Amino acid sequence: MAHYYNEPSRTFSEYLLVPNLTTKDCMPSKVSLRTPISKFKRGERAKVELNIPFASAVMQAVSDHNMAVALAQCGGISFIFGSQSVESQAEMIRKAKNYKSGFVVSRSNLTPEHTLQDVLDLRERNGHSTAAITDDGTPTGKLLGIVTSRDYRVSRDSPDKKVGEFMTPFPSIIHGHAGITLSEANNMIWDNKLNCLPIVDDRQNLVHLVFRKDYDRHKENPGELLDTNKSYIVGAGINSRDYETRVPALVEAGADILCVDSSDGYSEWQSETVRYVKSTCDVPVGAGNVVDREGFLYLVEAGADFVKVGIGGGSICITREQKGIGRGQASALIEVVEARDEYYASTGIYIPICSDGGIVHDYHITLALAMGADFVMMGRYFARFDESPTKKLRIGNNYVKEFWGEGSNRARNWERYDMGGKQSLVFEEGVDSYVPYAGSLRENMDKTLSKIKSTMCNCGSMTIAELQQKARITVVSATSLVEGGAHDVILKESSLSGE
Ligand code: RVP
């Protein structure tokens, strides 16, 4: 006879935290969100730790090198998506590792032959008011000029006007030479009252741009996540098919941690993959996804350095509808954490747990941590920001960003759903969608982090480990859910936007 679970499968929204005593010294500004993401022995420290418990999902629409840099600047980690060629994934890792704070590769580029309309379209698309004008329109072509909003007047100039006619030409541009340090670049910016300093090589080819605002931001990044060489820490997704070629290339490119990305990780394929990584290189590897004790122990046995929990809870995921497998994210997490804690008690080895998918409200993150997760992985959350790799579009009066699942036809990531046999996606387990555009990662993240720290203080906890020990969690009834939001009032329009 089949096994029946006594408890229903529950989601985060069915739980609330009950406050503990908040002592006077327990203030949000003193809360530490540092957290381990690779296994360690009792009394030792993890090889990889984060400054904030956030990982961006192993997804085409979420985690490229730009997201990796932006998130590492805030103290978290991106797992750069694996559903691309080995070469291009390794290149993304390299770009993130080689990124020099403050020096950016130009993202808005045109040629002198483009028109004012092209400038306006580009600005609308990516929000940058500075465009580099190069001979071939690439970020590394010969720099011929710069266009900023000060160079044209939309009300007077014809949309057909050629960029070459109104750009500030190279001879008039104050620029730096490759090799310049960030503080030298910053001095030039200040001395000349510039907003942007292009850096060129000996042949006048554009190398980087340095923006005044980025330098200021760099100084505001006390929590950035750096390795011992002062490069950003970056993760990478791998699959259980081509690991023998992919893993060495990613490690060579500088990946700090790997993660086998699979919709259902309780499989011999996954175990083999983890064993391969453990026996061939020194880079930690996480595995998943699992939703129960057995799956967790199986992957730990294989050597997993962290275990990822969650099946079917992702915002774009339709696995539960398509295949009827999965488990409410909270129930899955609670069971796996119990197994992890028992494992730690008996072996002295701590396996960090990542709660992956299904985070809708910021408080879900705090709940996941309180339930025992060491960090959360999110797709939808990050897809909404400027830094995600997808297009920003206007639909009606709203801006949105594209966001598609790895199991959608668009991503064609059959390896994530591979069960042996045919090398293709036989049916979809994810959808292609939009998410509301939400602006910059940092602004949103600051708000989210403030909420987490504030709730932790309500729970009398200054660290994640303390929260996990002290949290008191209650199930909420369906009726009391209504009481949790604004109710029985007529909301003013200004109150309708919010998280
Ligand atoms: P969310 O944060 O709710 O958007 O969930 C992101 C997670 O959803 C990913 O980390 C991954 O585990 C899962 N995912 C990604 N693609 C798909 C799919 O197409 N079904 N699911």
TrEMBL record:
Binding residue positions for NAD(+): D261, S262, S263, G310, I311, G312
SMART domains, sorted: IMPDH (SM01240)
Q: Which cofactor does it need?
A: K(+)
Task: Report the EC code(s) recorded for this entry.
Answer: 1.1.1.205
Where is K(+) annotated to bind? G312, G314, C317
CDD domains (UniProt xref): CBS_pair_IMPDH, IMPDH
Q: Where is the CBS domain?
A: 92-163, 167-225
Report whether GTP-binding shows up as a keyword of the record.
Answer: no
| Record PANTHER family | INOSINE-5'-MONOPHOSPHATE DEHYDROGENASE, INOSINE-5-MONOPHOSPHATE DEHYDROGENASE RELATED
What is the protein name for this chain?
IMP dehydrogenase
Species in which this protein is naturally found: Paenibacillus sabuli
